Amino acid sequence: xxxYRVLPDLSRTRxxxxxxxxxxxxxxxxxxxxxxxxxxxxPRLKDQLGRILSPVLMGEQSALYSVSxxxxxxxxxxxxxxxxxxxxxxxxxxxxxELFTLFYRRIDRQPLSIRRFPAGYLFQSxxxxxxxxxxxxxxxxxxxxxxxxxxxxxxxxxxxxxxxxADGILLxxxxxxxxxxxxxxxxxxxxxxxxxxxxxxxxxxxxxxxxKVFEYLEPALAALDAELxxxxxxxxxLFEGVGEEARRRLRKSIAAGERIAQGKAEAAxxxxxxxxxx
Length: 278
What we know:
Layout: H1 13-24, H2 43-52, H3 54-76, H4 80-107, H5 118-125, H6 132-156, H7 160-194, H8 198-215, H9 217-222, H10 225-231, H11 235-261, H12 270-273
Helix pairs in contact: 1-4, 1-7, 2-10, 3-4, 3-5, 3-6, 4-7, 6-7, 6-8, 6-11, 7-8, 7-11, 8-11
């Protein structure tokens, strides 16, 4: 265990910028008008949404647990700037958990229990890790899944409040994906600069990690195939889209780190980081 620095260095500029951006971008469930008239009146549609939103709420709770566990680990490793940012990521996941809890009350439904939806629990349980790179490669699958589902909810516009929730969460997810790229780009830039062969081994390790987490997504989505189809979401297209984007994002973070180490590119600007691999 490393000793905490009494005076942090705070020299990782991009990490500090995304930390300050996250601070300025905070919002609350109380900013939304929960008295907005519902557009969802069909009991069947409410039942479907109650099932479909189960992995979403489960994912927010799981992310809150896993990111909170990494905060002290990064502090012990003197990665203070990254630790700063993860505190806001934890706040984001707590906010999302509250939002969907309140939305369940709005439609008067309950999420599926773990007993009735074991595939969702198994998927989320694969993401937890006490190593930052492993966690980020695994959480890419969950974050991209959430991003694509929020894009679908916004497209379908089933309920005005759900659309507003999706808009806010998409802004949060963009920051999370931006940090994911920045952290891994820096990590691989340092590994490739060392030129000791560890970079490729670590890249292989993270790709295997992503693939392993992704394997658990299909049964979770398959359990909701009928509900997704009825409200207008193609389950197979969603599944394939998540895998394609998550893998592309990880590949681009690794490749960017290698190019920076070789002097062929500069680190991505903060404004670019969120859309790398999109």
